[in-house]
Structures are given as structure tokens and as C-alpha cells.
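User:
Note these C-alpha cells:
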Amino acid sequence: MILEMINKHIVEPYNKRFFDPFYKKFFSVTKDTWKYYAMFQPTSEKILRNSGHPIWGPLVRRLYRLEGENYATQGHILPINRSLDKSDRISKSMVTPVDLVKKAVKESSYRIILDRCLCRDGFECKDYPRDFGCLMLGQACKRMVETGIARSITVEEALGFVDKASDLGLVSILGWAEFEAVAKGISDEEHTNYFEICFCCPCCCLGLRNYKHMHKSEHMRNIFRTIGWRAQGSDACISCGKCVGLCPMECISLDGDGILVGNECVGCGVCSVNCPEDAIVMKELVPIKDDLLDYFWGVRPNIT
């Protein structure tokens, strides 16, 4: 209770009035400061592990702008790789999450690709390309081009980028974050005029590495969630156990000749895309929405 009062009446007002403007002006991510942000990623991960802690959690969540008055930080996990049960969806003539991503790209007025992935640089990724960064949509993204950490791209380039992410087996996370706006130096007037589509690997992404810790908090479960998909084993499973060790949520277990997937599954598709027998498919539990923006709550980013 005491920590919560300190957070609400001291930390949060201080951040908004003093820290955020100062940070944006002098310490935002640029081409020159990128390496220092990358070096801090492992430390940041250790801090975020406590975001679901019953005592320290509220302090960590406010530090990273994950919780607080008028904060709407959120992430929505979109399976975009071959792990989808495509034959079932094609037969029903329904859209897939990757279709929604491409629709948003086509409707956006401005698009950028970050030159590198901060997480993969920070953890010195050896399995996925470090120069494959996030895709960001909206006019506010011009700030990242100005600071030398991104380049503007055409619609066609962006669509090709999405396809490559799918081929690489990366997990797509649709996000809008208060702290991202602070770190990237986006002004208060512009901070709702963008959102990002991260293409994450399970070995380096701060989110995927920490979801199992974050989800100890109901608040964190509410702001970082699946759009309604879950992994499901099939008869082709040989119980090799590879998926058990790869699952970011640690919610898969062996069960005789197959697997059991727990309710904690966030539908990332990591297990399926890495299954040597293609024995895991992704099943839609909730009807997909018409637009990516329909998944946002508390804020509706403007990308046109």
C-alpha cells in the first residue's frame, strides 16, 4: 500500500513533469547511443522479471510505464508464421493475423524499419539476424529516421519485410508503449501517431523471455496477451520434447505419446514453427477482428 501511494503521488507525477521531457531531449535512442541501450538490455530483463512480483512489481511497472494513470502500454501477440492451421483457414476463406498486418501496412501513411533489433544486439543473438528490426507505422516514426536508427520504406518493401519475418519463424507482437515514446524521443503531441510491429525471437525478446514472470500479475496478463490463438498437438507428435524446452511460458508438458498445452499459452507459435515433425498447429479460439487497431484499448493509434 505504501509503495503504491509513493508510485502514484510521487514517482508518476515526477516522471511526467520532469523526467520524461528531460530524457527525451538528452537521452533518447540515437545512432550514437544505440550501443549503450543494447548493453543495458540484459539488465533491463532482470528488472522486468520482477514486474509480476507482489511487492516490487508495482514499482517496476510504473518505472517502465506499464501501469499508471492514463497509461495504455500494451502488446498483442500475433502468430504470423507457418504454425497456423492454414488449410482449415483457407477452406473457410478467413483472414489470418498476417493479413491484418499487411492491411495496416497498406493503410499507413508512413512506414519505417529499424536498422537493427535492440534485443538481438543486446543479447548477441546467434540464431536470427540482428539487422532485422521492428516495423513501425505512422507519422511519429519520422523521429527515428531523423535520429539515424531507422529508414523509411515503401508499402511494397514493408510487405516483403513481413513475409521475411514469417519465413524466419519470428513472433509478431503488435505494441504501443509509453516508455517507447520516451526512449525514442517522440513528443507528447505525436506519441499516439504510431504503433510498432516487433518481430521477436524467443531467445532475445524481452517480452518473450519474461512473459512467464510478467503473467504472475493480473495487470500484466491483461496488457500483454494473445489475440486468441493456442497451440495444439496432433497425432504426428513423437514426444521428442523439443517444444517443452522452447515454450516461453513453460506451459507445455509431455503426455504419453503427445503433449499437453496449458491455459497459459499466449499463442506465439514458437513451439509449432520449431517442431521437427510439424506436429503442432495453432488453433483460433476467438474470432479474429477486422482491423489491428481494434485490438487496442485505452488508445487508438493514428497511422494514416
In short: Residues 30 and 147 are 5 Å apart (CA to CA). The chain has a mean pLDDT of 87.
